[in-house]
Design goal:
Distance between the termini of chain B: 30 Å
Structural class of chain A: alpha+beta
Oligomer: heterodimer
Strand order of the largest sheet of chain B: 1-2
Structural class of chain B: mainly alpha
Strand content of chain A: 15-25%
Strand content of chain B: under 5%
Subcellular location (chain B): Cell membrane
Mean pLDDT of chain A: 86
Shape of chain A: elongated
Number of strands of chain A: 20
Distance between the termini of chain A: 48 Å
Number of strands of chain B: 4
Largest interface: A-B, 78 and 71 residues
Low-confidence stretches of chain A: 1-6
GO cellular component, one term (chain B): plasma membrane
Largest sheet of chain B: 2 strands, antiparallel
Low-confidence stretches of chain B: none
Membrane topology (chain B): Multi-pass membrane protein
GO molecular function (chain B): P-type potassium transmembrane transporter activity; potassium ion binding
Protein name (chain B): Potassium-transporting ATPase potassium-binding subunit
Mean pLDDT of chain B: 87
Chain lengths: 670, 553
């Protein structure tokens, strides 16, 4: 995955505030959002009260102090993980917030304008922005053209043009006008703008839980209840034999068994997933959208820019019968000398003539009306252009026209675009412009297919051309001569078959399809309508990113699943550490269950509890970076994760607890 | 070698028989549009109900039907002394025993806090108890059928009243008829005359209780009921006369629970998925059989000091005429399937052997009760799919249905209920004189007796560890409640899950979807059963059978 370099996770500027927040997050109102950690805190409190009682009785406190200490540490580690995940977005949020605070706008009123704070601008107000101004609110340019630097939002300093009408009319609050002026109609109420959303996102504060996160929380809470029954009934069981279990020991067993590891890391995983997306310059409007990205079955990809390079390249000259190839090459070369487009330059390159341009020439530029371009050399008129446009220039020899049409068809069938070339009255032949499929894209599609994702290429080309390119690029299907309505229909059809669809788009006419799709990535350069309709915005305007977005969504869920499996598997070892320790006084024979050979019952209980606590910070890097993600089938994915996190989760605590037991007994702590 | 052959013959043979029976059950329970029309129309006419029910109406009908069954049985048992078919003039029963027994037979548990031949009139045995052995089992099959229809994506679950008749008349009755016939041929009594009188060699007069044993027996085994005609259940010579009735009984215990898995697979049209579930269940049951046969091969600790050969294994509490292997084998089969009939004294099993039947009841899904075993497994499947689904990077889906908070909540609640009923009940009785005063043995073994009784009630198994004075009022009431909750919660909650599933848009399955047909998922499912199901009970196991085992010198 082409991610930006990951910052180190444990840097001082991130760790210090996170440490502080580990304590402020102990506030019950915040803690209750995570029922398992809340339960742990309640249990820690109980253990502390009991400790005080023991101190008052002047009993032996060494063991109880340690139990209480590690219980609190478990809670704090969980808070720390969350704070650290949030911290990574905080700095960015601060910068954005200070930008927002200084925003002022010139609201147009009658013939003049008044200077107001951005927070006073309402939807529908019109503001004037001039060179040097920061745009005060999200809106639509309704008059004028301005060049805008959007670095504050995208990190990309190359200026972009924003003008009224068309697909380049949206402006974003916080970006700077660097030349000219424009009148902008505000399209959002204060506090609901792009900048506000971005601040909220990068901070991760008041993050709404996603559906999958809620379901997992339910599972973990349910498990906690089950273990409450399993541990809560023990005193009664032991009472039957006339024994008893000390409460600190019981709470240690309880906390060791409940799924604290995954619960502590749960929100950190979610925040980190969003953060990965943000650092990838994609803004998701909700965590739900990120999860949906992992579920995508069908990807609709625009041909140009995603599957093929934006520019076509000349690859062959095809002469009509009776024409010398040299003649055609020369005419093609001449007609492209004044053509500075990448296509024109590729024709000059293909002609391969290292001569200077002839004297006394006049360049005839391409216009949308004529759709031809060329060169006048004195009276000689050399032209090239779209075949129908060239054929409309004048009457040509009917035989030559027929042959030209045959060549045109042939080129279209292999996915190319033909340009006709004429020299005066004579039709010479055609230039075969080829769509260049991006290198490596075919392999990407093969990976996607393995993951069960179908790719559909969307193109305005005719079906013949589209089919040829689709075959070359290795997409599963294509939609040729696509109109926005066709796209919408395709999305609905896929969804009716139970599939989740992702697409990207930028124009206003893409908005309905973006809104209908399950994951709609709007280009940041697109219209406000498109940006509102999609549930993600790509700040780099790179449609290929859709593929990575799917990967990030999958990685997020996989990390959650892997750590859940790990956390639950750990219980086996914890049982084997604590159960013999608790019961050995009652039934000495049960020491046989002490398979790890832990030194003393107290040490066994402490070691399990310590392992349970320190595994949290040890897994923070994994939670924040995500588990390794490779595009492969679900079956292979499951084998991989189950063997690493399932088997690992069974074995790791046996080793870990044994090592901690060495340390604890070696230091004489128990 | 003998052990191996007996086990292979019984488990393997039943597995083979279950495949065609599963196909037949699909035909009988969920016929395709023009199959079995005659029967469907007949049943619709009898019950006067033909409309397609959604999950709520189906469930309500099921529950109302069960309440009626409970009430009727309660009445018959409470009034047996005044009702006909009481040739031996059995007296009135204790009210708590009536409650317990009515709950026991309505819930397909057949926990018996009485000895049938001593306490029950023939009417009670036949009209009250045997009838319930059919319809309570039929309720389970109907519930599974409806659940499978929902999972197959149908919003109408058909009609409970029709389904329960299909299960009774097309599945249980014909199979039971065949089994009874074979049982009679093998020498089992089948009569409506009163007890036989015999004069012994010493000149004393002996009363030999008998009755319609073969009919009672066939359905007791097939319907995972387990309630014996005689108190000692299948260890009684007239309830289990020979090796062949013994083998046949064990086959009958496993047959329909196994076939239910195939029926489920055929209704949801995923036979490979069903095969995987079958395989996972088989692994569990074989592990338990291996464990119990192995642990039982050591002599009972009491004999260690005595000059007795230790090559025969533990013979205490076994019917020697049936061989020593079948005791532990029967113990595993009867608890794995929530059957509850016994072929040996579970109280006399070696401690770790006794752990195997306990584990069977804690999981309650390794084939499990008729219909409900597969439903219990569905709970584990939901949880396994949820965790494994995340690990493949998608919102978890089961056969195209998204598993979200609601489904997880109901699934985990079902496991929670099971744990509360068993552990909570045991805690209450173990810590108080309620239980302490009724155990025969002190220490870990006595604890196992209490634990076993609650496990048996909550899992709707019905077997007893025995050695427990469980006929008292508190025991009758507590286990009665455990049986009722243990029966209906695991039906209501899965129905709610399926109700939620059918309301959602079904997702297409692709290569990116979690596969539920391969060995990896089988492993995941097995782990889920172990960790979510078994681990909860490990502390209790440690204080019961495991402590007892390690306390033996």
């Amino acid at each position: 995955m082409t991610q930006k370099p990951t910052r180190s996770i444990f840097t001082a500027d991130l760790v210090r505030p996170a440490l502080r927040q580990s304590f402020t997050k102990l506030y019950p109102g915040l803690l209750i959002r995570n029922p398992v950690m809340f339960t742990t805190a309640v249990v820690a409190l109980l253990a502390s009260v009991l400790l005080l009682a023991t101190i008052a009785r002047q009993g032996d406190v060494l063991f109880e102090i340690q139990i209480a200490f590690w219980l609190w540490l478990t809670v704090l580690f969980g808070n720390f993980a969350e704070a650290l995940a949030e911290g990574r977005g905080k700095a960015q949020a601060e910068a954005l917030r200070s930008t927002k605070a200084e925003l002022r706008g010139k609201r147009l009123k009658g013939s003049g304008h008044q200077d107001v704070a951005a927070s006073e601008l309402r939807k529908g107000d019109v503001v004037l922005v001039e060179m040097g101004d920061l745009i005060p609110a999200d809106g639509e340019v309704i008059e004028g053209v301005a060049s805008v630097n959007e670095a504050a939002i995208t990190g990309e300093s190359a200026p972009v043009i924003r003008e009224a009408g068309g697909d380049r009319s949206a402006v974003t609050a916080g970006t700077r006008v660097i030349s000219d002026w424009a009148k902008v109609r505000v399209t959002v109420e204060p506090g609901a703008g792009f900048l506000d959303r971005m601040i909220a996102l990068v901070e991760g504060a008041n993050r709404a839980k996603t559906p999958n996160e809620i379901a997992l929380t339910v599972l973990l809470t349910g498990l906690t209840l089950i273990f409450l029954v399993a541990v809560g009934t023990l005193p009664a069981f032991v009472a039957y034999t006339g024994g008893s279990i000390a409460v600190p020991v019981l709470v240690a067993l309880f906390v060791a068994l409940i799924p604290t590891t995954i619960s502590a890391l749960l929100s950190a995983i979610g925040i980190a997933g969003m953060d990965r997306l943000i650092r990838f310059n994609v803004l998701a409007k909700s965590g739900r959208a990120v999860e949906a990205a992992g579920d995508i079955d069908t990807l609709l990809l625009d041909k140009t820019g995603t599957i093929t390079l934006g520019d076509r390249q000349a690859s062959q000259f095809l002469t009509l019968s009776g024409i010398q190839e040299g003649e055609l090459v020369e005419a093609a070369w001449l007609s492209s000398l004044g053509d500075e487009t990448p296509e024109g330059r590729s024709i000059v390159a293909l002609a391969g003539r290292n001569e200077d341009a002839p004297e006394n020439t006049e360049v005839v530029g391409f216009t949308a009306q004529t759709r031809v371009s060329g060169l006048n050399i004195g009276e000689r008129k050399v032209r090239k252009g779209a075949v129908d446009a060239v054929l409309n220039l004048r009457e040509f020899d009917p035989a030559a026209v027929r042959e030209m049409k045959a060549i045109t068809d042939r080129i279209a069938r292999v996915g190319g675009t033909p340009l006709a070339v004429t020299d005066g009255t004579r039709l010479l032949g055609a230039i075969y412009l080829k769509d260049i499929v991006k290198s490596g894209i075919k392999e990407r599609f093969a990976e996607l297919r393995q993951m069960g994702i179908r790719t559909v290429m969307i193109t305005g080309d005719n079906p013949l051309t589209a089919a040829a390119i689709a075959a070359e690029a290795g997409v599963d299907d294509f939609l040729a001569e696509a109109t926005p309505e066709d796209k919408l229909r395709l999305i609905r059809k896929e969804q009716a078959a139970g599939k989740l669809v992702a697409m990207c788009g930028d124009g206003t006419n893409d908005a309905p399809a973006l809104a209908q799709s399950d994951v709609g990535v709007a280009m940041n350069t697109g219209t406000q309508a498109a940006r509102e309709a999609g549930n993600m915005v790509d700040l780099d305007n790179n449609p290929t990113k859709l593929i990575e977005v799917v990967g990030i969504g999958k990685q997020l869920l996989m990390t959650r699943g892997a750590l859940t499996t790990f956390s639950i598997s750990n219980d086996v070892a914890k049982y084997f550490a604590i159960l013999p320790a608790i019961f050995v006084a009652l039934y000495p024979g049960l020491d046989a269950l002490n398979v790890m050979g832990l030194s003393t019952p107290e040490s066994a209980i402490l070691s399990a509890l310590i392992f349970n606590a320190i595994i949290i910070p040890l897994l923070v890097p994994l939670a924040l970076r995500g588990v390794t993600y490779r595009p492969q089938t679900a079956a292979r994915q499951l084998i991989r994760n189950l063997s690493i996190y399932g088997l690992g989760g069974l074995i790791a605590p046996f080793v870990g607890i044994k090592l901690i037991d060495f340390a604890v007994s070696g230091l004489g702590l128990a | 070698m003998d052990h191996l052959f007996v086990i292979l013959f019984i488990v393997g043979g039943t597995a083979l028989l279950s495949v065609p029976l599963g196909s037949y059950m699909k035909w009988a329970m969920d016929p395709a549009p023009n199959q079995a029309d005659r029967w469907t129309r007949l049943f619709q006419t009898i019950s006067g109900a033909s409309e397609d029910q959604d999950w709520k109406r189906y469930l309500v009908t099921l529950l109302v039907f069960n309440i009626i069954m409970f009430t009727l049985t309660f009445a018959i048992l409470a009034l047996q002394q005044w009702l006909p078919l009481n040739p031996d003039a059995r007296p009135a029963l204790d009210p708590t025993l009536v409650f317990n027994t009515a709950a026991s037979f309505t819930t397909n548990t057949n926990l018996q806090h009485y000895s049938g031949e001593v306490s029950m009139s023939y009417l009670s045995q036949l009209a009250g108890l045997m009838w319930l052995q059919f319809v309570s089992a039929a309720t389970g099959i109907a519930a599974l059928t409806a659940l499978a229809r929902g999972i197959a994506g149908r919003s109408g679950l058909a009609n409970f009243m029709v389904d329960v008749q299909r299960a009774s008349f097309l599945v249980l009755l014909p199979v039971a008829a065949i089994v009874s016939l074979l049982m009679v041929l093998a020498g089992m009594p089948m009569t409506l005359q009163g007890s036989a009188m015999a004069t012994t060699l010493e000149g004393a007069t002996q009363t030999i209780a008998r009755g319609p044993v073969a009919a009672f027996l066939a359905i007791k085994q097939l319907g995972t009921n387990g309630g014996g005609f005689f108190g000692p259940n299948a260890t009684h010579p007239l309830e289990n006369p020979s090796f062949w009735t013994n083998a046949l009984a064990m086959i009958a215990i496993l047959l329909i629970p196994m076939a239910c898995v195939w029926m489920f697979g055929r209704i949801v049209r995923r036979i490979r998925h069903a095969a995987l579930i079958f395989a996972v269940m088989t692994v569990f049951i074989l592990a338990k059989i291996t464990g119990s046969v192995f642990f039982e091969s050591a002599p009972t600790p009491a004999f260690v000091e005595l000059p007795v050969s230790d090559e025969t294994g533990n013979l205490e509490g076994k019917e020697l005429r049936l061989g020593a292997t079948t005791g532990p084998l029967w113990a595993v089969l009867t608890t794995a399937t929530s059957n509850g009939s016994v072929g040996a004294m579970h109280d006399s099993l070696n401690p770790l052997t006794g752990l195997m039947p306990l584990a069977g009841m804690w999981l309650n899904a390794t084939f499990g009760g008729v219909g409900v075993g597969m439903i219990n497994m569905f709970i584990y499947i939901v949880l396994a799919v949820f965790v494994a689904g995340m690990m493949v990077g998608r919102t978890p889906e089961y056969l195209g249905h998204k598993i979200e908070a609601k489904e997880v909540r109901f699934a985990i609640l079902a496991l929670f209920a099971h744990a509360v009923l068993i552990l909570g009940g045991t805690a209450l009785f173990a810590a108080t004189p309620l239980g302490q005063a009724t155990v025969q043995d002190f220490g870990a073994h006595g604890f196992s007796e209490i634990l076993y009784e609650f496990s048996s009630a909550a899992a709707n198994n019905g077997s007893g560890f025995e050695g427990l004075g469980d006929g008292s009022g508190p025991w009758n009431i507590a286990t009665g409640i455990a049986m009722l909750l243990g029966r209906y919660l695991p039906i209501i909650l899965p129905f709610a899950i399926v109700g939620s599933l059918v309301a959602k848009r079904r997702a297409a399955e692709t290569a990116g979807t979690l596969g539920v047909e391969d060995a990896t998922f089988g492993t995941m499912l097995g782990l889920t059963v172990l960790i979510f199901g078994a681990l909860t009970f490990l502390p209790a196991a440690a204080l019961g059978p495991i402590a007892e085992h390690f306390s033996i010198p």
